Amino acid sequence: MIFAAEAAAVENSDCLTCHEDKVYIKEFDASVHGAVKCVSCHIELGNSEFPHNTPLAPVNCGSCHSTQEAQFSESLHGKALGRGDDLAPRCRNCHGTHDILPIKDPGSKISALRIPFVCGSCHSEGTKVTTQREIHQDHILENYSESIHGEGLFKKGLIVSATCVSCHSSHQILHPSDPRSTIAKENVVKTCLKCHAQIESVHRKVINGELWEKKPQSIPICVDCHQPHKARKVFYDQGVADMDCLVCHTGTDIRSSADGRSLHVDAGELKRSMHSKTACAKCHSDVTPSKVRSCETIKNKVDCAVCHGDQVVQYKQSTHGKLHSQKDTNAPYCKDCHGKHLMMGRQDPASPTYPTNVPVLCGSCHRENNKAAVRYTGKEHEIPERYVESIHGKGLLKSGLVVTAMCTSCHTAHKELPAADPESSVNKKNIAATCAKCHKGVYEKYQRSIHAPGKGRDPDKLPACDGCHSAHSIKRTDMASFRFEIMNVCGKCHQDIAKTYFETFHGKVTNLGYNKTAKCHDCHGAHDILPVSDPESSLSRGKIISTCQKCHPGATRRFAGYLTHATHHDPKKYPWIFLTFWSMTALLVGTFAASGIHTLMWLPRSLEMRREHPPRPPRPGEKQYIRFSLLDRILHGTMIVCFLTLATTGMTLKFSYTSWAMFVSRIIGGVEVSGFLHRLAAVILAGIFSVHVWDLLRRKRKEMGGWKKMFVGPDTILFTLNDMRQIIATLKWYVGKGQRPQYGKWTYWEKFDYFAVFWGITIIGSSGLMLWFPELFTHILPGWLVNVATIIHSDEALLAVGFIFTVHFFNTHFRPEKFPMDTVIFTGRVSLEDMKKERPAEYEALMASGELEKRLVEPMPPRTVRTIKVFAWMALSIGLGLTVCIIYTMIFSYK
């Protein structure tokens, strides 16, 4: 007490006079001894003069920690220190000096995480203790770090895991031969029981086929099985516990479970499995180790959530999981997809979850008529089959691109939900983000487009990815089938616009199966569709020319004025188109009405003439009048071929929406061949017209002598007052008010047919040229004139075809007195009897002038006539067949 009083007289401030700059003094304030005076430990300084003498005597920690000092003195460390061993540890070697922190402080030298390193500073291989004292430590620290205790401490931060002092104690470290030692044979179990309580009740009873407790209640020494510093979960090699299970679950004499399932386990599969290092009991967690037959207590299915918690949570939220919770026997469980004992990683080509195997795996339930497919109530069926033929399926299964989309890429692996569920990855609101996992660039364009959520006036009608690309039968966008189908897809939402598209050349050739013409996305864009008012739109004023130039390199600003979706139904918006359409319609109706009435009036008189003058075959050797020259016949025959070509190729385009037009187009060879033949026939027809005009000029000089006779002479092809008189006289004859007129060389209906060709070539030819070379013409003319030219060309062609194949055919071949065919235009010859009957005025004029005999020739050989008739019948058949198709379309399916 006297010493304590004297010591109390010295304050820490006295010491700090000299030691205030020392680091350890600053650390002392934060240590457990921060409230203790310096002289309480350095007791010899209590009555010393300052500055004091050095060195100081070692601090006696036992003055405060007597119990720990007594234990240390009896320990191996204390005895070594008592012998004067310079390597023997002192308190400060473990606890420190002035920086001693509480054990629970992470910074403490004796915290749980640091204990192995404190002990290892002496007991590691290569330290002075192991080399100078020749103590074999067998890599204690290294072995401990790899043990189950070391992994728990270092890898998982479990500070309750066993450290050196947990087994050897902190201060009373004794030799194992000492009965008091915590690791003495008699005490090892008690030491382990401090952490591993109730070893008897939880420990496996059978190890390597032998009872663990060879005598009742006789617990073996832990270290007999678990090496002290290499302690693992089991003392034996990995898999020995599984082999104990396989004793019963392999072989040929395997019993079945109560529900009939086989209990056989293939040991080879276990070795190849991802779970090869996982003990049976880790999954079959209901086992009771104390039982000789541990699995007899298993009642529940394997719970994969023990290791795969996130996946199981997702599964329970999925349709599969919900059905499974409802005890649906068709609902898949983990083992149905991943297997039971042979579970392979998804990177293993043999695994059911390897990308190329996933469609087969999902198809095992979702293939048509299988257990999942029978639930389908929607429109989509044959899902796995459609996927196999899709761009994704071909990429995965045919090209082996394991990065391509498979079932789980879109529907997820564990959280499959119906598309109607807002949480589903394929819900309309989420599907774009799902596709974006692979198609990031496309998704970014889509988000800026008019189709993106929040951009349209009706959000519920905005298309998502599957709206255009479908769900399971996705095609390459450069495939012809996709380019054709996308037109109908766009038409689902844009019906009125789609109708106007199919009235254009682009739409018509698309109907006929032509892939290379512009489709919706070629002009509007695919994923980056923007309003026309947006400067970035491909149809904005600044970009529309470049858009047109993708197909029409010579396109100009006027060319871009073509009204792509114009309609003739809107007189305010498109007045010229409206006016043109109805003018052509009036021309069509008027012409056919007048011609039809004329034909109906003529028919009774024609029947009467046939009864009075039935046709007779020509008599042998009877000469005939040559009515048409060879050039006329050649030009007419060539014109027939050209006209039939133009009519067939043109009408298939005009009525492209009909099945017959599509069939005829395929027979011809497709749109490109049809277009080539159409233009070729047009060029030849223009050439025929030029040759005929040249022949007229030649004959004017040679046969007519001048323009007057050519224009107003008795044999002129032009209309004269006499034709008007004949028309009136003919109508009177039709109604029984007069005699049949005395027709001359040309009748009025022949003149009408003749000048119809001039009209047609001029109107159809000029409008056709504009459609053939729109870029050239729109350098001068506005683009909307192309729309007008389209209507004129189409309707005038329909008028020409309809007139030729009905009215003209009647006038020349099908009227009763000529039926079934008048061959004069092909042979050039007509009998004198027919001459007198058909054209009495011309016959009398020829007789009077003496010219008749000069123009009589021998009839053509019968074989030649038969050949001509074959050609003529072919032409008539084509014309009549085309007429029937057109009339049928106009009546039953006109659009």
Number of helices: 46
> In percent, how helical is the residue content?
40-55%
How much strand content do the residues show? Answer: under 5%
Order of strands side by side in the largest beta sheet?
4-3-5
Mean pLDDT: 86
Shape: elongated
Would you identify the regions where 5 or more consecutive residues have pLDDT less than 50?
1-8, 235-239
Major sheet, described briefly?
Answer: 3 strands, antiparallel
Please tally the β strands and state the result.
5
> Distance between the terminal alpha carbons, to the nearest Å?
122 Å
Radius of gyration: 54 Å
Structural class: mainly alpha
Distinctive features:
single chain; 895 residues; mainly alpha; three-stranded antiparallel beta sheet; two-stranded antiparallel ribbon; disordered N terminus
Describe the structure in your own words.
The protein has 895 residues and is mostly helical. Helices cover 52% and strands 1% of the residues. The chain is built from 46 helices and 5 strands. The protein has a 3-stranded antiparallel sheet. A two-stranded antiparallel ribbon has the order 1-2. Strand 1 and strand 2 form a beta hairpin. Helix 23 packs across helix 24 and helix 44 packs across helix 45. The termini are far apart. The N terminus is likely disordered.
